[in-house]
């Protein structure tokens, strides 16, 4: 049976809003991401402290993230100055928080200063982890475009069960605030070839996460 895709709070502060971006918004975002992927800092797979390379490719706005810190210049990716986070994206982040929490003022004070743009090729995945390099507990706003993925939302205590699995489809919004902000989460797999033909990507999956670093 097909389950309805409705706004769902899967845990306190963790809200999934299916089909939040229309196809034209998705295409515009994809177009902007194509530019950022080229430079001033090229999109790359980050190297983890153990020496392994992530399968996901990332380019950042506002602040450069590398495991596990934020810097203004991309020391592990050519040394360039990170592109600005554009005002339209910060405004989209505020609207996202309003929509997720069904509160027209919830996002008023939300001002993300970094965005991580992740690209998943057909075989890419992201293991269970917490995002704790930010010095604030402001929500993370996540936008998905392209192939559908399996998203795994865990708990704040361990990287293992219990978790809730959710499919993220092109256009979906997810906001992680409140007590969900420091929960473990990951992307076990994507479903190649499942994107909407008009979303702007030919293949793969894009995920944009806006965050508040708390850095000066
Ligand atoms: C829950 N990205 O970039 S987005 C990441 O789809 C990351 O690329 C995944 O996890 C992706 O760190 C998942 C959903 C997400 C992002 C940040 C979170 C969920 C989160 C932070 C706290 C709790
Ligand atoms: Fe994460």
How would you explain this protein's 3D organization?
With 216 residues, this protein is an alpha+beta fold. The longest helix has 16 residues, at 23-38. The protein has 2 helices and 13 strands. It has helices at 23-38, 87-101; strands at 8-11, 14-17, 57-61, 64-66, 69-71, 114-120, 126-129, 140-146, 149-153, 164-168, 173-176, 185-190, 205-211. It has a 7-stranded antiparallel sheet, with helices on one face. A 4-stranded antiparallel sheet has the order 7-12-9-10, with no helix packed on it. Strand 1 and strand 2 (14-17) form a beta hairpin. It has one domain (8-211): Alpha-ketoglutarate-dependent dioxygenase AlkB-like (Jelly Rolls, Sandwich). N-(carboxycarbonyl)-S-(naphthalen-2-ylmethyl)-L-cysteine is lined by residues 116, 118, 126, 131, 140, 142, 174, 176, 180-181, 183, 185, 187, 207, 209.
Fold blueprint:
Blueprint: E1 8-11, E2 14-17, H1 23-38, E3 57-61, E4 64-66, E5 69-71, H2 87-101, E6 114-120, E7 126-129, E8 140-146, E9 149-153, E10 164-168, E11 173-176, E12 185-190, E13 205-211
Antiparallel strand pairs: 1-2, 2-11, 3-6, 4-5, 6-13, 7-12, 8-11, 8-13, 9-10, 9-12
Provide a concise account of the structure shown:
The chain has 216 residues and is α+β, with helices and mostly antiparallel strands.
């Amino acid at each position: 049976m097909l389950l309805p895709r409705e706004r769902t709070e899967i845990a306190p502060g963790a809200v999934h809003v299916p089909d939040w971006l229309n196809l034209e918004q998705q295409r515009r975002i994809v177009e902007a991401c194509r530019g950022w992927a080229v430079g001033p800092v090229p999109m790359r797979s980050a190297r983890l402290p153990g020496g392994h390379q992530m399968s996901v490719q990332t380019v950042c706005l506002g602040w450069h993230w590398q495991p596990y810190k934020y810097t203004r210049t991309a020391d592990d990716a050519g040394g360039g100055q990170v592109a600005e986070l554009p005002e339209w994206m910060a405004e989209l982040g505020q609207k996202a928080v309003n929509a997720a929490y069904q509160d027209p003022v919830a996002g008023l004070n939300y001002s993300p200063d970094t965005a991580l743009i992740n690209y998943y090729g057909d075989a890419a995945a992201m293991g269970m982890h917490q995002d704790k390099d930010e010095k604030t507990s402001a929500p993370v706003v996540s936008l998905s475009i392209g192939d559908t993925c399996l998203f795994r939302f865990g708990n704040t205590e361990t990287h293992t069960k219990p978790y809730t699995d959710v499919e993220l489809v092109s256009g979906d919004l997810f906001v992680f605030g409140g007590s969900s902000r420091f929960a473990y989460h990951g992307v076990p797999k994507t479903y190649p070839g499942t994107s909407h033909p008009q979303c702007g990507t030919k293949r793969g999956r894009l995920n944009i996460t806006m965050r508040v670093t708390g850095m000066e």
